[in-house]
Amino acid sequence: MTIIHVALDIPIDSLFDYIAPDATQLDIGLYARVPFGKKFMIGIILAISDDAHVSHDKLKQADEILRNIPPIPPTLIELFEFCSCYYHYPIGRVIMNGVPTRLRSIKPVLQRSITSFLFRLTETGHAMALSSIPGRNKTRHYLLTHLKEVGAITSKEAKQLSQRAPKLLQEFLAQGWVEKVLEEPEFTLNINASPILQLTTEQITAINTIQAEIGVFNTWLLHGITGSGKTEVYLQITSMLLKQKRQVLILVPEINLTPRLEEIFRSRFPTTHLISLHSKLNPTERMNGWLQAQRGEASIVLGTRLAIFTPLPKLGLIIVDEEHDPSFKQQDGLRYSARDIAIFRAKQMNVPILLGSATPSLESYYNATTGRYRKILLRARAVKNASLPIIHYVNTRSVQLKEGLSEQLLVALERTLTQKQQSIVFINRRGYAPVLLCKSCTWLATCSRCSSRLVVHLTQKNLRCHYCGYTEQLPPACPQCGDQDLMPFGHGTQRIETALAKFFPHARILRVDRDNTRGKEAWQFILNAIHKQQVDILVGTQLLAKGHDFPNLSLVGVLNADTSLYSMDFRAEERLFAQLMQVAGRAGRAETAGEVLIQTEFPNHPLYLALKHHDYDAYAQILLKEREITHFPPYSYQALLNAEAPHIATAIEFLTMASKLVEPGKQIEIFDPVPAQMTRLKGLERAHLLVQSHSRKKLQLFLSKWYMKLCKIPHRKVRWTLDVDPSEF
Ligand code: ADP
Ligand code: ZN
Ligand code: ZN
Fold first, then answer.
1. Residue pair 385/524 in contact by the 8 Å Cβ criterion
2. Is residue 199 in contact with ligand 1, taking CB distance under 6 Å?
3. Class of domain 637-724
4. Tens digits of residue pLDDT in 682-714
5. Same fold: 201-378 with 637-724
6. Residue 450, marked binder
7. Which residue has a Cα nearest atom 15 of ligand 1?
8. What mean pLDDT is reported for the chain?
9. Strand order of the sheet with strand 39-49?
10. Does ligand 1 come within 6 angstroms of the Cβ of 276?
11. Is the pLDDT of residue 38 over 70?
């Protein structure tokens, strides 16, 4: 009897067996519809044999093997298996996390031609004189005239011109007057097409170094300061691989960074089929992108972390831009690091991978010093005469602030306005004020479901929890003592925006935070406004700091930077440093010199001293020393067991029990369970347990044994997850 072993989206780490008389070894990787409980599910066939895990009379028959959907290729299955093994997460869940929902929905609609086509006038078509058109067919004349005006149309548009037009298009096609091309998605961002630049010496060295080993696996750390022209290096290396008919995968941390990069790559490679994969696509678009990549039609795949699971039969290069960015790590479900998986994948396919950053993660930086990665430096800004901005600190202990803004910053903003240059004011808090306080009884508005304070949003006149989304009306009086004198305390983006509008009534001010950037259009609008100089002052959160290139920006002000200086999370300082370097890096990217003003209570903190000199290496050395002494990554490998329960005691009790399940052995360190920093979240209380080792291999061995035991603990009131290489505590 032929049995197929199927991976299903079920939280159990095993395959499910079904009878499938018509299955052959060639069916591995295919999608199958199988009964599960009372319903049907779509799974992936991972193995075929004539042996089942359960007795044959208990087996059910598979409903159908879906042979019209291209199978998941073996290398991608291998990648999924690696993820399942490394992150200790059920294989079915891993696969279903990566495969587009549309392909695994119970009725996958798979049309033959999914993308729409354009009929584009060829040179022959262009050259056709209207008078030479045979016959006296008016529609034919009309259609050709129309094509000469617009260049290309879809068959749907043609139909709107005339019922007969689609048929005529086929005729034109046969004559060679038009050609059928894939429709390019519309994009409206209009940055000037990037000309091929005269490369800087550093760029040339970088490109030559990589080119010398273009056909083999290497992890290149492209450590280039902000504005050093890393994008140009990506473009040139990409071009080499496109010439070899290979596919290039480019990962970016944020969906907001895709439009700009997409535009740059499209204008450099106008005839190359590029697809952009990110979370805002609808399920059909995502499936189409996936299939185009799988068929090898899409040569450039640009996307956020999920794009790492795209099938790419001709993969020749992976680029991970802003490799240090925490967004590459998924924080729920399969807690994978897209950057780390990208490295695995590059090695698996024996292709080079480029990790680019002005502020590499300490892990990557360390790997480059030990020789595991190869480091390439870009030390200078690419644009002639552009230099790194000058950084000043305003000691907020010794000056009076007006609405959170120092006199120095106000003066600098005024000067920048007069010079018709742009400024950014950064504050990492959205909303109006982070706290609502009663002056008489010191009551604070807090979230009943989380250990957090409710943030005042004045525009919508409500209070909101930024962790769980809970919203309520602004109370007219203190719920505790009835006093009506409630005070918004502290500053958020909305409040700073209001204050700036008061100080600079003639300035055009634009706020950019998560409240007003939902949707791709919103971002395009913002980026266009900035590039067309329709904005003078931007007020925003770190959303604005990442990777953008704003040539007219010359002043950056930073408020409330200190908040993460003395945090419990050992990565907080590394992140703050990277963030501030990135923020500062937005200024003075063209020929206007940039200036950065940071308001802080600790201007003499080593972090600020290194930042002043733009000295990433100096600070990285300090942090590495600390990590070495405390045995933290990159000097050790970690895993975190998270538990959540209605009461913290239950979670701690579970973790204590879990810590005794497996004898850890000499090289594994198990810490005591502790409550999470955000102890209460969405009505549940959370704690975690850290496991650490100097050896990744030893840690993995331990985790495998441990995970099996954890899975066998009967379900109680505790929900647990295992996070390998955790990035947040
Ligand atoms: P980053 O390294 O921060 O990603 P970008 O790639 O965005 O830097 O480049 C910064 C700016 O420098 C861009 O405006 C880009 O067009 C410009 N640039 C890059 N290379 C060169 C070059 N060789 N000559 C002149 N300008 C360049
Ligand atoms: Zn009160
Ligand atoms: Zn909440």
1. no
2. yes
3. alpha beta
4. 999 999 999 999 999 999 999 999 999 999 888
5. no
6. yes
7. 229
8. 89
9. 60-61, 16-19, 3-7, 39-49, 31-36, 64-66
10. no
11. yes
226 close to ligand 1 (CB < 6 Angstrom) = yes
What pLDDT is recorded for position 222?
98
Pick the CATH number of 201-378 from 3.40.50.300, 3.40.640.10, 3.20.20.70, 3.40.50.720: 3.40.50.300
Ligand 1 pocket residue status of 692, Cβ below 6 Å:
no
Q: Does 311 have pLDDT greater than 60?
A: yes
Q: In the sheet that 462-464 helps form, which strands lie side by side, from edge to edge?
A: 455-457, 462-464, 471-473
CATH architecture of 390-433+490-625: 3-Layer(aba) Sandwich (3.40)
For ligand 3, the distance from its centroid to the CA atom of residue 579, given in whole angstroms, is 26
Confirm whether pTM is higher than 0.90.
no
Structure tokens at 711: 């899975």
Is residue 383 in contact with ligand 1, taking CB distance under 6 Å? yes
Angle between helix 520-531 and helix 258-268 axes, rounded to 10 deg: 70
Residues 14-34: tens digit of each pLDDT: 999 999 999 999 999 999 999
* 472 CA to centre of ligand 2 in angstroms: 18
**Best of 192, 196, 197 for a ligand 1 pocket test (most atoms within 8 Å of beta carbon):** 197
Q: Where are the beta strands (DSSP E) in 453-523?
A: 455-457, 462-464, 471-473, 486-489, 509-512
Q: Match domain 3-110 to its CATH number in 3.40.50.720, 3.30.1360.40, 3.40.1440.60, 1.20.950.20.
A: 3.40.1440.60
Q: Give the contacts of 527 (CB within 8 A, at least 6 positions apart).
A: 189, 259, 260, 548
Residues 6+ apart with CB under 8 A from 372: 219
Of the chain, the percentage scoring pLDDT greater than 70 comes to 95
481 in a known ligand binding site: yes
Q: Cα dihedral sign for 673, 675, 680, 685?
A: positive
The ipTM (two decimal places) reads 0.96
Show the tokens assigned to 273: 């089929």
Tokens of 502: 């008061």
Q: Which two tokens stand for residue 729?
A: 């505590």
83 is in an annotated binding site: no
In the chain, where the domains are located: 3-110, 117-182, 201-378, 390-433+490-625, 637-724
Tokens representing residue 264 in the block: 């740059």
Q: Is 200 in the pocket of ligand 1 (CB under 6 A)?
A: yes
Residues in the chain: 729
**Tell me, what's the pLDDT at 196?**
67
Q: Is the confidence at residue 230, as pLDDT, over 70? A: yes
**Which amino acid, one-letter code, is at 103?**
L
Sign, CA torsion 92/93/99/100:
positive
